[in-house]
Structure formats: structure tokens, C-alpha cells
Amino acid sequence: MKMIEKVLYLGLGMFSVTRDRIEKIVDELMEKGEISREEAGEVVENLIKRGEEERKAIRKLVQEEMGGWKKDFSTSTQSELEELKARISELEKRFEQS
Which DSSP helix (H) or strand (E) runs through 66? Predict the structure, then answer.
């Protein structure tokens, strides 16, 4: 059964597989006699659980990347703001002198 699960993990693309699609594929495997009815329920639940774990891992990765980008963006924006403040101060000094 473990080999079948591994093949299903690879073949199904766990990122976008719905419960209905998983059940359909497992039903086809039962019809072909590749897994038993008892194994089918377990396989479906394991595949769904694995899919959820993969989705959570992807969400976490995206959130971490976005957090990094936000930090980088904020840092560059802060430095640009400081440059603008310095330029404004310089222009104010020039204006006062004229």
C-alpha cells in the first residue's frame, strides 16, 4: 500500500486535489483490484491529510517570503524617506538664505 500512496502523491499533484478527485481515483484503484475497500478509506484520509499539510507548508512559505519582502520594502522606503527629509532640509536652508 505504501508504494501506491507514493505513486498517488506524485500523480495527483497534492496542491490542488479535491476530496472528490481523490475518492474517484481510489475507487478506480479498488475496481482494478489494486487496493481493498478497507485500504481505500485509509488511503483517502491519508491523501487528504497530506494535501492539507502541503497547503499549510506552502502558505507558511509564502507568508515568510512576503514578510521578508515587506521588511525589505520598509527598509528601502525608510531610507528613501530619510533622503527626502535631508533634501527638504537643504532646500529650506537655501530658501531662507535667499
Answer: helix 37-97
